[in-house]
Structures are given as structure tokens and as C-alpha cells.
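Record 1 of the preview.
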Amino acid sequence: MSAEATNPGAHSRRRGRPRIDLRRLGRAALLGPAARDRLPDAIGHVADAHRAHHPDADLAILHKAYVLAESSHRGQFRKSGEPYITHPLAVTLILAELGAETTTLTASLLHDTVEDTEVTLDQVRTEFGAEVCYLVDGVTKLEKVDYGAAAEPETFRKMLVATGNDVRVMSIKLADRLHNMRTLGVMRPEKQARIAKVTRDVLIPLAERLGVQALKTELEDLVFAILHPEEYERTRALIADNSSASGALDAMAESFRSVLRDAGIAAEVLIRPRHFVSVHRISLKRGELRGTDLGRLLVLVGEDADCYGVLGELHTCFTPVISEFKDFIAAPKFNLYQSLHTAVAGPGGAVAEVLIRTHQMHKVAEAGVIALGNPYVPVEGTEPADGERADPTRPGWLSRLLDWQQSTPDPDTFWTSLRADLAQDREITVFRADGGMLGLPAGASCVDAAYAQYGEEAHACIGARVNGRLATLSTVLSDGDTVHLLLAQDAASGPSPDWLDHARTPGARIAITTWLAEHPEGAKVQAAAPRRPAPVTADRPAAANAVVDLPDATVRLAGCCTPVPPDAVTGFAVRGGTVTVHREKCPAVARMKSLDREPVPVRWGDAAECRVTLVAESFGRPRLLADLTEAIATEGAAIVSATVEPPSQQRVRHTYTLQLPDAAGLPALMRAMRDVPGVYDVSRTQHPAATA
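->
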């Protein structure tokens, strides 16, 4: 298939600064006017593309690498019949167009020499240095295992490890796969489909996560054409039929330029055509396409502040679609992407999606980690550990994958987990209690946050506070949430099998499954046994320290609110000449007054003793009941009755009726109970009473 066949944007010429367009980099650009068996000027195309991004780059090493690659591959041909050197040249040209630095391009030219020729790693190290040798070795290791179905898990485990040690290895691999996909037409259909599926399942998500959108979008179109040829042809026809409708975008782009020029904002306004897969998705979502659906408007400015200035002008002069606004500048996406997204309606009612970003943001949006140059600058006087490299650009998701792949010795389990993790195409950022951040896939729960923050220590997690409010571990987190994870003090604590129902990340699932396999005796012991203990009760004595001015009246404290000195209280006379005393804020007081029941004045007498009912809300853990009763006894309170409800979602409610020697000790008692690990709240009962 030709490169042009996958370019849905061919119908619309863009103004201003051109977008990186990999589809135009065909074999003719590599071979030039020279004969097929002679490519002396081919490296010149790479040099020109490289100098466009790095004007001061030293090209001597590129020429040297080309000479070695060309001489080593001489006599070798691809299945298409082209000289083999066209492949490393094409891969290098793709990376050069994306702005890769010189070391990456040098390694790209040599990436097949160690695998397919007599060149050795020692020779590469001697001629080009340790950095180039490291990259070539990393790419070579990815090629040592065939892409057969049985070998895929281990192949991609090696790919992941190599990527984690140096993201430039994956950059070369992605460009390598792109060129192979462009020339896949010479292979049998069944092999095309197999390679396309692997590309779809793993390499495209990796390209997305590394932020290399220019590679990702073309790979998507190539896979789409192979795996869904009928839908691909329909989409191409749809684009051709609507090519004349692009005038709506042209008109809005011109209106944008006029508005921003009048506002004094220097900006480029470009039309960014959608690629085939994007048009296909839009057509499925909206049905009949509008003229503005075939592309989006891209506004490029110089500074971050100008992005918000442009947004304000567009929202002032056009009708904004508020639901379409997203700020990825203040909160960048997990793959380094930054931009403002919005949509506005023009005077004729046409709605256009708008992207607003700086030129640097645009470069990173297109090329991702490739645009960041060489992040591995050695510190003088230090030697990195063997095989380990500190990568300041490594995304958080990649660090997590590297962590859990080490805990998954089974290749099939690793493969399944990898595909599941990469299928999460959106990531959220949550904030830890200490101010740090956690990157998690959308749909992640507090269980995932616990293992992302604490690793295996999360086995002792008993709950969380989300945005300051108590939450169960099953709570699904949203972007921007603040999560405070609560750990039990008991080192013997372990996860419950129920946690697997709420874990979304491979790291959490693998850690939980491993712990449960090592502890076959069962799930974590909950704080209270699942059976309900029979309450221990005592007769309710008269409240001698509550006094009413009624002769021969019997006074008792209401069980719904258990008032104690110095609570503000009131009473209501009930049958038998008894006065029930409530706290004034008790819901029963309002009900009694609504029934026109006359309150009886109540005051506290001199007696110091009091009885109170407290409710302790806690997360389940071993010995919780014993620790609570010990805390109560230490404060000098006597337990009149106690009830422990069965655990629900790892939360347990304890209700205690206590006799205190002095009401003044109640605040200290409640503080002591709250200090018991696992207890998150202690309150006095507020249960409504059926009758006073």
C-alpha cells in the first residue's frame, strides 16, 4: 500500500508552519536520482532533516555510521527487492524528522548491523562510543526473538525492560515498526494480519504513552487498512466525498486570524486534518459528518500565557462549547502532552474543535520523548550500576510497568497484564497526603493508589480518605483527587480476596494474588468476627444528676442521644410520670415540638457520674476490639453494653454504652478511642427514637 493511501489530510493544504508529515517520506526520497545499487547521497536527506531541528549538530558521526551500515548491508535485500540499507535509512529519516538527537540517529543507522552483519558490539563501541553501543545493543535484543505467537510475551518483556533503561531504544523500535508496516504489502495476508494485531495491541499504545503522536497516528491508519479493509475504504470514500466541505474550516481559520491580530496576539492558525482512524471514530459517533469534522484548528503561540489569551479572545468573539474545554497545560497528560482544548461555534453555527499550544508544546505533542533530546547526562565522579540508568523523562506508567514485570515470572501472565494495562488509554493524576502525585489509569481505585504508593506495604492498608472524607478501598478515584491512605500497625495484616474486584493496575493485582497464594489460610482476618456478638446490657438507672422541677417525677436519659453534663438538655413528660431527657440538638426534640409536646426544663445536679453511648467507626483489622476495650478501661470507664456489627466493605461499627465516673472525662475518652489504629471516628449516638 502506498503512503498516500493512508493520508486522510491530502485534501486540505495547511498554511504556515508545516506539520511533521511522515507519509511523504517514501523510497524515492531516499534513493534520489541515483541507481538502486548506489546510494552515495542518501544520508544527505537525513542530514538535512536533522539540521532543521539541530542546526549545530556534528554530522560527521552520521556519515561515519552510514558508511559502516551501507558497507555491512551491501548485497542484502529486503523482501520488496530494495537494497537493505533503505530500511535503516528510512528509520533514521523518520526519527530525524521528529527531531531526534545525533546519538539516536547514529544508533538507528546501525540498529540492524550487529544482528544481520559481521559487525560486533565491540566494534560499535570502539568506533562510536558506549552510548551508541548501548542503544544498538538494546534494539538488537528486541530482534533476537521471533514475533511468533508463542514468543510474543517474552519478546515484549525484553522490549519493556530495554525501554525502561533507555526510552530511545523504544523510539528506534517504533520507527522501525512504522517503516516495516509501510512495506508490509509484500508479505502474505495472514502474516500482515498477525503483525498488525501485535502493532495494535502493544506498539500503538506504547507510542501513545511515549507521546509520539506522529508515529502513533500513522501506525493506526496502517493497522486499520489491514485489519478492517472495508471500513478503511468507506472512510476514504467519506473523506473524498466531503473534501469540498473543508471550506468551513478555512473560513473559521481566517476569522481566528483576524480576531487574534486585532487583539495583538502573535499566533499561527493552522488547519490540522484528522487521520483516517479519527475520521472513522467521528463518523461512528456523530453519524452524518459536518464540514468541520474533517479537521481541527491548531493555534500556535510563543508563550504559555498567550495560550490563555487566545482562549479568552476566542471564547469572547465566538460561542464556546463549554463541555469541550480541557486544560492540559495546567495538568499535562501522562505522556507529556500539553494543550488547551476547546470548541467554538462560528456565525453560521458551524462548530470547530480548537487546539491551543506553544510551538514547544506542539513539538512535544508530535514527537513525545523523542523531542526531549538525550536525557542521560552522566554526573562526573559517579558510575551507574550495571545495566541501570536514571531517566528523568521516564513516565510514571513506565516505572510501574518495570516494577510489576519483575514480579511476574510467567510470560503469559506478563503478556496478559501488559495488554490490559496498555488498554487503559487514559490516565489520571491523584495527589498524596504528603503533596506528591500518583499517576494511575482511569478507573483506578484506592486499592491501586495504595500499591502504587507503598508497594507491598499496601497489604496493611485498611482504608483511605479521599478529598478529606472517609472512603472505602473500593472507591474509584477521579482526576485531581487527594488520597490519604491509612495503614494498620499490625505487620501481619494482608489483603482480602475482595480487593481483586477493585484492583485495576497489574501491580496491585499481581501483589494481591501473590500474597494470597503465599497465605492459603485465607483472607485477612477482619477486626471483628463476622458473627454479631450478643450485647451485654444492664438495667438503666435513674439519672440522679439530671433534675427536673416536677414533684415525684422519675428522670431518665434518652437512649437516642445519651446526654451527659454539661450538654444543653431539655425533657418531655411521658407515661408513668417519667421525664425523658434529651440533648437539645437531638432530632427527637424537634419531633416532639412538632407534635406540640410541652418541654420540661432540666438542669444538671451535683452527681459526677454519667452514662453515655458512643459509636466507634473503624476499618477492620486484627485485635481491634481488644485495643478499643483496653483504651476504654485505661480512661476509667466501665462498659455497660457493647455491640459489634458484622464487617461491611472492611468497615466495622462498634457501639458501647459506658459508665463514666466523671462527665468531664468524656472528651479525653473519645480522643483515646480515636487514637486506636484503624478507628477513624468516634461519636455519641444520634439515633432517632420512636417515642420519647
